[in-house]
Amino acid sequence: MTSDNTPIKPWIRTILPEISPPSLKDNTADVDRLIRGIKKSLKTEKVEIAFSQIREIPRILTQNKYHVKVALYETDGVWRLIDLFSPDTEHHIYGVSIDLGSSTVVVRLINLDSGAAVDEFSFHNPQIQIGPDILTRIHYAAREGGLKELKDLLVERINKEIIQLAGKHGITPNSIVGMAVAGNTTMTHLFLGLDPYRICREPYIPVVNRLDILKAFQLEIIINPQAPVLVFPNIGSYFGGDLIAGILSSGMSHKNQVSFLIDVGTNAEVVIGNNDWMMACAGAAGPALEGGVAGMGMMAGPGVIDKVVIDPETLAFDIRTIGGLLPIGICGSGLIDLVAQLFLSGMIDLRGKFVRNRCMDRLTDIDEIRQLVIVYPEDSGTGRALCLSQPDIDALIRSKAAMYTILTTISNTVSIPFTEIETFYVAGTFGTYIDPRSAIVIGMIPDRPLETYVPLGNTSLEGATMALVSCSARDEIFQIRDKITYIELNVNQEFMNLFSAAKFIPHTDKALFPSVRVKEYGR
Amino acid sequence: MTSDNTPIKPWIRTILPEISPPSLKDNTADVDRLIRGIKKSLKTEKVEIAFSQIREIPRILTQNKYHVKVALYETDGVWRLIDLFSPDTEHHIYGVSIDLGSSTVVVRLINLDSGAAVDEFSFHNPQIQIGPDILTRIHYAAREGGLKELKDLLVERINKEIIQLAGKHGITPNSIVGMAVAGNTTMTHLFLGLDPYRICREPYIPVVNRLDILKAFQLEIIINPQAPVLVFPNIGSYFGGDLIAGILSSGMSHKNQVSFLIDVGTNAEVVIGNNDWMMACAGAAGPALEGGVAGMGMMAGPGVIDKVVIDPETLAFDIRTIGGLLPIGICGSGLIDLVAQLFLSGMIDLRGKFVRNRCMDRLTDIDEIRQLVIVYPEDSGTGRALCLSQPDIDALIRSKAAMYTILTTISNTVSIPFTEIETFYVAGTFGTYIDPRSAIVIGMIPDRPLETYVPLGNTSLEGATMALVSCSARDEIFQIRDKITYIELNVNQEFMNLFSAAKFIPHTDKALFPSVRVKEYGR
Q1: What pTM, to 2 d.p., does this model score?
Q2: Cβ–Cβ of B211/A54 closer than 8 Å?
Q3: Cα–Cα distances in Å, from A129 out to A137, A162, B512?
């Protein structure tokens, strides 16, 4: 997705070096002979072979009569040996890019000779069985053996999925010679077996911001043991490699125009900038936007409500679910849709409170909590009514207010009003499903023309893939990291004032949302 | 022993970097914070920390309130972390240099803060129990498990001796943070667990000529696991790191004048050159010069004859032994002395044959082999007579002829006569004990003034020590390696002619040895 069209220069590749067999006139050692051939072939002075690789080289060279295919990777101008293959094999070399989400992990298999994706597979992060949220996992990691357990759960599952994916395409793990991994800072720490303890405690520091390229065997990833593993760097505890992958994937760091990048999740993460400068900011938005708290909230999946339309005249609910099944719950994007529709149809007011004479008999009290029946038991996939409670709405409003306040704060900080921003990139799979119109209606994002919002899909996976196949993309992630000024969000009086003003639908200042017009229904 | 007097710049050192503790205003990760402090302290841009070291860094930093002593080593302009220590410790950092001889291994403990030797210990190479000579060990290595057994024998013994040596001085293995190892090519391969199989088979190639700096844990050396281990490079199967250490230690590569470096052993290894150029040559001399074949021959040790004087008039033998004990055998230098004295006293002729009317009743036949009694049973530490046989003398003559021929060949090749050489450095512990006068008398080395011959002692250990403590000495060994032109000794007709002429005492061409004058005794 980068804008330039120069051919991609790989940093993981194979060559067929010319290596003359040894003779009495040229008794250079086998390893030095191989290095000499590689240097000549790559026109480089810097080639490194790990000590553990040396032992087998004479055997492989002599067995293949000194004609070998050599897989190498480059880092800091040094080419390092990954493996030697027989030159007759028709086989390609492959790589794996991984989006390390706290909820969902996606593994993509890539042909490194062509740069093309072969296949991909996504699965729930197995650490969910320890704790659905990051904080629970951080606490668990502090227990005796907890960190190792969390790491092993993840690594073993990733290994299993890689093997299945490779096996499906007749690819041996040994021919997978590279990996790139993007995730948030905590997930990355857990993947690496590094203690995340201080990430969530003042002064909120990770163990490490940027790592050198690792090798698969160091992480117990069972692809080629000498395969390089690029782990995306982070900027801090609350701004991880997934976001850097997002910036890379958006191409915003190549543009003259200033763009926003928004990642909506438990944390609202926002980047603003262009090819000159970048500022980033992140703040807690709560799990409501991800459907994490609502009584009927759940992660996207079959039967989950992802789209709601309410006829403002008849107040009839038109409910769409994933796979068209009977509804069993609602995901974050469905919830944003639902609340926007409730507001537009006058069923909730600008404070998000249920309007009795619009809600009518859909309104009920369960356990002394006011609830709105969204799906009646007879239409429900669970056999029970699916309800939205007043606290659910309150939580969503706090979350959307946090997002809008963070956007306002960063816009104020750089003195660039929303109207001067041509593009708001929306990162993450979740971003793909949000209807920007609904998000505008509830006042979560600025009231800009819909085409201003560009959903990018899984930018973490896309960025990881780009960095795996391209030398310049890989180098760029470290440039992006060093270029970003991270703004620590001071929850001061000004922030609280902005936040309070944003806790209305769409906002106390209606002039900020001119497109959101609500018919006055009798109350 | 290098000629320049500039202060030694170490490549293994400690620093006390300034590291500010993290705060909300500076939440750089611990590892990156440490790297930042090191970069500032060393004024460098390149600092590397291994992945395996990262895990413990936050704990050590916080426990020490971010005041730590950091041990690092430099290679290729990159400073790499060895370990973190508490800053209050009075303790120094230490290193170990090793001379990896096929017969004797010497371990020296060095204070890396001062560069001074603390202590050293030498012991028989435990691989001797597998085979006294290199070839037997190479064959043994080809057996199932043989290579590992040879490696383990050596490494375990080295570990044991290092621990004893360190313990004696109250030094913990963890504070030993560097190692340098010099040995011949086969010994180095066996130490590294690399198959020496092809070293002794055409076209005689090692597995590797030069290695990057390794780490102690890779070699199962139980000093600080992250300690760098510098393994001396080789030029080929027959020109090893011990010789490169010898050249370094001699300082000949800094001089304008052309010098010779001679290492006498089973192989005669010879280097000629100056600060501009270097040529090297090695050839089999047989084990005679090391006392390896003579019936009474043995390695230097208590009771071993190392000096012999025969009164040419009375033919009385004046025999000196190591430690002044009753004689039990003779070492190489003693053998050279003995044969020179036998020749000067007319007891052997210029072909090395016993002269009956000078040897008289010392001459006897044992097992149909002519022998000369050197020590009578009553004067012997073994209770038996110590005898020198005709084949012993013949073997020594072949060995000394090989050495002289190699010297002549290389001198002819570069067209520099012996008379233009101001210094002949004699390397090796053995070289220290050879009486150059005796060696001239038997025609093993050119007839030059005695002060021309400079014994250097254990140049392998000395060179390893220099390279361990000094950055420039370390870099120089690779420059020396790349500078040397290795001359493959063609055993052609010309060589054979020179060799035949040298198989006399001192030589067929008496003009070459004007100082060796023998009184004509009646025969």
Answers
A1: 0.90
A2: yes
A3: 10, 21, 90
